[in-house]
């Protein structure tokens, strides 16, 4: 099952392993590494981002 997240605020990556996104972007959740940093995919880019910048989408997609 694939989970998607919606960006609540813009985030600009501060390192090469981070993921930048804009408010309203739909991010595919890959892994929750801890409560603060998650890993996701957006536009064929994979990276880490702060979990407090997103919210879980209410629907999930079954693979």
From TrEMBL:
Domain SH3: 1-59
GO BP terms: actin cortical patch localization; endocytosis; plasma membrane tubulation
Main subcellular location of this protein, as a coarse class: cytoplasm
GO CC annotation: actin cytoskeleton; cytoplasm
InterPro entries named among the record's database cross-references: BIN3/RVS161-like, SH3-like_dom_sf, SH3_domain
A GO molecular function held by the record: lipid binding
PANTHER family per UniProt: BRIDGING INTEGRATOR 3
Annotated protein name in UniProt: SH3 domain-containing protein
Source organism per UniProt: Rhizopus azygosporus
């Amino acid at each position: 099952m694939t989970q998607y997240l919606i960006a609540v605020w813009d985030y600009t990556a501060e390192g090469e392993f981070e993921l930048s996104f804009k408010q309203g972007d739909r991010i595919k959740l890959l892994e929750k590494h801890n409560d603060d940093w998650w890993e996701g995919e957006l536009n064929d880019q994979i990276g880490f981002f702060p979990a407090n910048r997103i919210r879980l989408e209410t629907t999930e997609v079954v693979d």
